# Entry
Amino acid sequence: MKEEIIIAGFGGQGVLSMGKILAYSGLMDDKEVTWMPSYGPEQRGGTANVTVILSDEKISSPVLDTYDIVVALNQQSLDKFAPKVKPGGLLLFDTSGIHKVPERDDITIHPIAAMDATLEIGNSKAYNMVVMGALLEAMRYKLPMENVVKGLKKSIPERHHHLLPLNEQAIERGRKLLNKE
Amino acid sequence: MKEEVRLMKGNEAIAHAAIRYGCDGYFGYPITPQSEVLETLEALMPWETTGMVVLQAESEVAAINMVYGGAASGKAVMTSSSSPGISLKQEGISYMAGASLPALILNVMRGGPGLGTIQPSQADYFQATKGGGHGDYHLIVLAPATVQEMVDFVALGFDLSFKYLTPAMILADGIVGQMMEKVVLPEPRPRRTEEEIRKQCPWAADGRKGLRKRNVVTSLELESSRMEEINHRLQATYRQIQENETRWEEIDVEGADYLIVAFGSIARICTKAKEIAEEKGIKVGIIRPITLWPFPTEAINRAAQGKKGILCVELNAGQMIEDVRLAVHDAIPVEHFGRLGGIIPSPQEVADALEVKLSNKK
Amino acid sequence: MELQDIMREENKVYSKPVLLDEVHMHYCPGCSHGVVHKLVAEVLDEMGLAEKTVGVSPVGCAVFAYNYIDVDWVEAAHGRAPAVATAISRLWPDNVVFTYQGDGDMAAIGTAETIHAANRGENIVMIFVNNAIYGMTGGQMAPTTLVGQKTATTPYGRRIDLNGHPLEITNLLAPLAGTCYVTRQAVHTPAAVRKTKAAIKKAFENALAKRGTSVVEVVSTCNSGWKMSPEAANNWMTEHMFKEYPLGDLKNQ
# Structure
């Protein structure tokens, strides 16, 4: 098993922390993991992306040309990374704010209404976990939920642990998002 | 605290590793992309547990001279910075080399020259391996490719620098500093007691306990013949280090037509590039120098036998390539591929460069 | 009465401090450093600190202080003695650490380290020998050189428009919350020597009691650099230096 994933969006959408929770969940599932962010002023307000690799084997390059899975959370990221999904790969994107949908028939594309679902939950901070729910559901590699919960616990500072149920709820909501399509 | 598996950034891992090594003191000054080292140490408050001293100095210059003072008193001390800050530290590093002091210095390289960029780079290879400060000296230079190696090289760097009484540097780049990976933190070892320090470092300026003969730590010697002797002694140490401590990693060198030589996290990008090249039938081996000084000259010379060419991949305009060319005496073509200014080449770019610069050439 | 009859232990009124080495100093005849060295050695003797003292010597005339006072020493890079002392003091909290610095070291190249060590209130002693000139390198202008004073780099006298004002670094250190004792003394008369010794002793007591940073400035002569006889240098100092650098405590808590 090896999943090479990039998550890209605006700074502030929780892209980096979603990547961290995903990576930590993989670690809890005994996988090799890397989490490689774009860092620096880019993060502040501009675009942010993070490459997460989950693998049974030792991971070579933390930097990639193409990906098994692209998660794009704004138009800019969708334009940039949709062409970089490997044939047979997976593209997830949030439909809100998207006016141009990529045309590729060699990959699986999941448009998800993650922002709308987050508004339903009523806490905008849960947005990235809604997206992660959809990703977990779509991914070939099935990460057991108990290890995702462990990953969440490890990633979130203890003073925010009261938010764990909200995050789990958001993940479940995200999973359903994908099943609907 | 026992051995522990965690997900963390290279910079954070350095802080944990230092505490677990039994490091006595860290002195630093914030600079991107390595400020997490100091931040993590301040958050972990090791002075409450192991007694390790952590101090944010007023400048990189002050920080390295605190390290000089700590090292002169026999303590296991370290600092970290990024390229411009490391330039400021060079005088102090030279003093430590001159006074034969052990210390650990981490450079998480960013692009230069000048203030440059905060993105990853390997442009300080020359500075780290060819001296850096004034005078005839070398540092032991370790180049980590993974977060795990960031951790492991804290212990290795300290151990080597105490063994040979010369400063050691971990030469990392922004990638390995900023990326998170699975890491196994070693079981903590206790800091040395004052008695242990006095036994290990009988030369240290730590107060004349028992009214022993006084210790003076200095790099000054105005009498030329004695200064020459000191220099010869240093050089003898460097030869010993070259003999005993040269480290490198080889991947599929035997049977390959081409070699890639790369260090640090870039070597991992090259591993992926090798896979891409092999899909086209180009057989590639990789040599990753782990110690940049001492440089694995003989290993590269051996590996180059019968090869058609070598590609040096570095995040600079061609620095390590000089050592590679010296290693193979220009017997086979040695080409360079690098990106500058903080741009990280993709595996495909490296594979393309290999094709264009070597395998397509007649 | 024969000399042997007089030279008896019970008649002894003065002896060389044990911690002052039996060697020739490299200082010029008439230089103040020798006296200040003796006072430091004497105080450390009397306080029984030989086993727990670490000195940090500067770059400047006192670079070889480690050849004269029998305690452990670290020779610092130019201006960095307070940073070096900071680390030793923090890593060996039971030890007493002092720096011995000149005006160039303390008030020019090392200004940042001086101010920040004092501001952090490091439990160290800073002995500051201010002779208003760079002795070691051959008599160039120091930050503390007086206006009008001729040096190798101000051959027509220090000019404010060209060289700025003399820097009264001790006055800058006194208001810092980290300092507990800041004083300015001299060693040109026996009375002044006694006062300076008391000041140095107080400074070391402060370090032992972890009260913060103590600074003892000793306004000094450099008769070679000033191109005067030792006596003329003393007179010039009392007449000119003391105006710019008046003696006395600036802070005593």
Summary: Chain B touches chain C through 41 residues (CB under 8 Å).
